[in-house]
Each structure stands twice: as C-alpha cells, then as structure tokens.
Amino acid sequence: MAHFSTPDAPRFSVEVYQNEYLPEGGREVNAIITVTSSGGGAAGGPSIPAPAAAPEAYDGVPGVYDGGGVPGGASARAAVVIMVDCSGSMDYPPTKMRHAREATAAAIDTVRDGVAFSVVAGTHKAVEVFPGNGRLAIADPLTRAQAKEALRSLSPGGGTAIGTWLLLADLLLDSADATIRHGILLTDGRNEHEEPQRLRAVLDACAGRFTCDARGVGTDWEVEEVTGIASALLGTADIVADPAGLSADFTRMMETAMGKEIADVSLRLWTPKDAEVAYVKQVAPTVEDLSARRVEAGPRAGDYPTGSWGDESRDYHLCVRVPAAEVGQEMLAARISLVQPPPDGAGSPPSPLAQGLVRAVWTADLAVSTAMNPQVAHYTGQAELAQVIQQGMNARKSGDAEQATAKLGRAVQLATASGNEDTAKLLAKVVDVLDVAAGTVRLKAKVAEADEMTLETRSTKTVRVKK
To answer: ∠ CA 149-185-342 to the nearest 5 degrees?
Structure first.
C-alpha cells in the first residue's frame, strides 16, 4: 500500500489485490485496485463579491445568454447548481411539483456556508431561479432563506431540453471558478424537445468540467437518458418512484456533494513496452467502464477520470495483457497512480496522491497459476451481473421470453452467490425464483413499471467482497 497527502486535502491510499502468478506463456494479468481517501477538511470557503449582472434566461446556445453578456467571475472552493424539471408534466399529479420544491429546499438547507450555489428551472430552456443575473450566491443563513423563498416561483409549463439545463449549469459553475463543481439534476420526463445527438454533444462538452447526480422522479422518464447523464458526468443515477421521497434523496445527495474535498482526480496507468490495457473498470460502488475515457499521459501512460472525492473508497478492475514469458521470469505489469492537475495549470507535473504496483510472475505450478484472487472473482461476477440484468430486461421488452428468462435467471444466481441482497430483492419483483442455486426463474406476468425501472437503474450497483 502507498499513500500521499497534501495540506488540507484527503489522504489517499491504494491497495492491490491480485494473483500475480501466470502459467508459462500466460499473458493476461488481472487486479482489483482499492482506492481510499480519508481525512479531508470541511468544504466551503470565504464569501465572495457578487459577479456582474447578466440576463436571466438562457437559450441553449453554448456561452450565449438571451441578449448577450457574460457573467462576472467569482471564486469559491465549492459550487453547486440544482436543476429542477419544471416542464408541463410536473403538474401530473400537481403534488409532484410541490414535492420537487420541498426537495430543493431541503437540498438548499444542506449547502454549507461559503459554498457558491444556484437554482435553475429547466423546461425547453433554462432559467435561473436564484440568485439570477448570471450569479452564484454564497451560502449563509440569509441566502439560503432567500433561495427557498424564490422556489415559490417554480411552476410547471413547457417542454424538456436537458442539454440546455446542463449548459447553463456549466456556465454558472465556470463563473465561480470553484475547485469542486457539482450539479444535481431532477427530471420526470423524456428529453423530447432536444435531439439525442444534441444531448450527447452537451455531455461531451461538460465531461470533466463538473460532476452531476441525476434523478428520475415517477416513471415517465427514460432510464438510459438519466443513467447516461450520470455516467458521462461521473455522478450517480437513481429513481425516486414516489415523489414524496424526493426530500430525503435530495438531502442525501447534497450531503455527499458537500463532502467532496478534492476534484479532477485521475487514475494513471503505466504499462511496460509491448503490454496493452484490455480494460479499466470501476467496479464499486457501481460498475462503470472507463476504458474509452483514457487520455494519453506520456510514454506508455494514460489517465482515466474518477471525478471528485471525499471520505470514501472505490474499487477498480484492471486487466493488462503482457508479453508472454518463461517460467521463473517476473515483471512489473502496471503501475497505478492517483494524480491531480497542478493548481498552477500547465507546466507542472500532476501531484501524486498514491501509487500501487501490479506484478506478473511465471510459474510451472498450475495450482498456483490457475487460482483466481477472491476480489477479482467477486467483481468479475458483479460486472457480469450488471450485464445480464440489462440483457434480460432488454429481451423482456422485446418479447423474447426465453432469452429474458435465461439472463435474469443467471442474474438471480450471481446476485445470491455474491451476497448482493438489494439486487436479489429487485430481481424477485420481476421474476418468480424457482431454484436460486440453479438460476431457474419464471417471468412474472405483471410487473409494476416502477419495479422494472428501479431494477434497470440500479443494475450497476455492486457489493464489496465480504472480508
């Protein structure tokens, strides 16, 4: 284990779990990397002057407000923008909008003193509800009270263009020049007033600029849209089927956001000559394939974004293919580092936060070389669990009962064997379990839409190895 820390920042540590032994000619090296950060200080910062005025309504054109003007700059350690769906569907039933206001008020109450914040109403355009004029407010008792009063103006009407909301959030967060930049997004419907490629382009533009947690309320939204937003912006996604649960969920989300202490952390992977990276996946607390997000970072090194960190621990599955070797040889298969961009920008090397080593040793002992490390075996199963749930649910929707039964039966088997009780309970609402060990199930004739969407949305949530 290796760890480093900087003043007023969390202390990072890296632990490597692997079976380093390969048979003669073996090439594939697997390892689970556990990254833990702890001991960060409190979020927040000093009050800052209000930025210059700018018009309130934003038309969705990158960097352009209706009528021009760029919001004035400001500085804070952390900043958060809450995006609330105010489209016409939020009026069905009318209590949905009321619960959204109450949830936003609860989130505002959780914002720490000194944190820059704003509330945006999202329809087919994005409008600043508080504080307005292109500004971010600095949280204190007075601004929190004013923000909650401003929520009275939230009323349903109009369409849904989520990309527009995200662009305004990005502009507001950028105006604060904050180290920790976070968004919370609530929607109850499909992104019907925006082409899918438009939202995709916005997510690509916002990736790496801020993290965003996304929530779908009710059952009229698209799982792939909400989970896609969270995935692209390194946040969390979930369903709040009953709007009455929004306040508790928003409070938890904001508490987690306020606990973030260090931003823009990347997992840097160095591999030796002639080695190649098969994949890099986050496997706890959720499954997220980071392989395609690699950014080259010098000879034989690449960075994989992990977003912002507070006091928490995450697991990553690394698979590297190394050149084949003979019995008795050994090599460094990979070097893992946690890095963060330097505060002074370009010109300085990234700050090392922690480091771990992955080895490869060739042996003639088949019993040793064929044994799978328990952590690697566990997370291989968890990744398969997420995959077969998605495949099973897709087959169910398309009417392929045979394929759906087979995949969801395998999911029941994996969830039970790995101790993933929450996922097992969700599966039991979609299938009747006949034989757990064999993975024998029968599709339920009727499934509540909320149960179906909950299983899909939470399919990537994992449990850690029991020690």
So the answer is: 105
